[in-house]
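ok so I'm stuck.
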Amino acid sequence: MILSPAAVGFATAFSLILAIGAQNAFVLRQGLLRQHVLPLCLFCAVSDAILIAAGVAGFGTIAAAFPGFPRLMALAGAAFLAVYGALRLHAAWTGGTALSLSSEAPPLRRTLAIAAAFTWLNPHVYLDTLGLIGAVSTQYAATPAKIAFGLGAVLASFVFFFSLGYGARLLAPAFQSARAWRLLDLGIGVVMWVLAAGLIRGAA
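replied:
not stuck anymore, here's the structure
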């Protein structure tokens, strides 16, 4: 059976975004805390939509005209991931964090600023959206099919982020203890440092 362009776009984007990364880990953590979930998920999904639209429209060829851009983004992203990873590892070491639905949430502006850094300073996002999704979209010569492919990819992003952000609350009972949060912070910190190391190696 031949899949429609929209279905191909959805499957392509969903398979790429499904991998555990810094952005996904942050959305998961905020979902567990139930802090700014709606604007955070919306921000991540809309950011993806912009990048996907650019990739389908052929912006990847423009990005390829600036060879130094990927390395610059890799180093900036690695620096941010290293710092944020250190903060999470410090939180895991000191402990004392348990899930409290009544705790004061950090400002929305700060939450979105962190999400923006995870999104726009991550070179893999550009590879996935501008590169891979843009490349797959080239199989559709007709404009309606290309638009359908892009809409399918954008829909996958919205489905994923909102499922992750709001689905995280199902895990909330397991995170009532400080031990669970220490393990989560430890895992997130390790993931951040691994991703940072990979970006540095790739930029070398």
